Amino acid sequence: MEGYLVIEDGTIYKGKVFGAKRIKFGELIFNTSMTGYQEIIFDPSYKGQIVVMTYPLIGNYGVNEEDIESYKIHLEGFVIKEKSRIYSNWRANKSLEELFEKNGIVGIEGIDTRKITITLREKGALKGGIFPGKRKSPEEMVEMVKKSESIVGKDLVRSVVKDKPYWWNKKGKYKIVVIDCGVKYNILRLLSSVGFKVKVIPSFFSWEEIVKENPDGILISNGPGDPAAVPYIVNTVSNLVERYPVFGICLGHQILGQVFGGKTFKLKFGHHGANHPVKDLKTGKIHITVQNHGFCVDINTLKDPHVEITHINLNDMTLEGIEHKKLPVFSVQFHPENSPGPRDAQYLFEKFYRMIDGKKN
Prior knowledge:
Layout: E1 2-7, E2 12-19, E3 24-31, H1 37-41, E4 49-53, E5 57-58, E6 77-79, E7 82-83, H2 96-103, E8 106-109, H3 113-123, E9 126-132, H4 138-147, E10 166-169, E11 174-180, H5 185-193, E12 196-202, H6 207-212, E13 217-220, H7 231-238, E14 246-249, H8 251-259, E15 264-280, E16 286-297, E17 307-313, E18 319-324, E19 329-332, H9 347-360
Helix pairs in contact: 7-8
């Protein structure tokens, strides 16, 4: 079906809609990954956003059941240059189009995604909308996009987390409670792989309820949206950091940054891709990391003398990791559970295990 991608700056792109045939709005962001489109599609951190893929051919290896990262798809829309007409991979069991049709997700192809990327790099993230068919005039579509909701100041976490706690893995030496802000399943897989029992608790549970779980450690997961819009999670974690070892990933890092007095701000166009160089300041090593965040902890606001900066993004020198000098607490802005080829950052899960093991023994 013919359709349109409309941007709030008035630009309109004509393409072909696939998947669900309905109007969707979201913050337009670009992802520079060459592979991993299934993991991107299932990442809960994209709630409220329309993802533009810079790599020109998407769908060539289909989708499978093993690489799912959440219980459902949360992104608002998907924009690509060309959708592969066939797929070929021994693990695949459906096409990209079949996935979108089954899950009611809107995609549009035939779009010059690299041109859009240049626009977003120059102007910053913009609101966009996908419109199937010819039901609206250009002026009407642009006006609807302009009036659509912004993700700034909006709590998107509650819309992606499950209502009840659940066990991911009951076998292991130590019990980890994962505060679910939109957790990706590979975080849970890797926690299990290093020897943890893993229980997932919704982000809106109180710190008293988490204490009743008698955990050996806490992991604060990734999640969507503005970290300043979830003060209830900051309050929960504030009451846990002196009780247990804590590891924060992405939004979890931003939560810990606020716990220790930091402020967050919106990046111009965010970090979304699988090739971001991050320097570990302790070892001097450069890690190639996966990133997906539109907000960041302001490195200049971390005034707590006990908070040590551990990682820096070498593209723009923004904060990528912190560690507390007195408490067994650390966090990273990037995604150590992702494996875009390099597995540079998976050591952090082993570090978390050693931290808890050292505290117990």
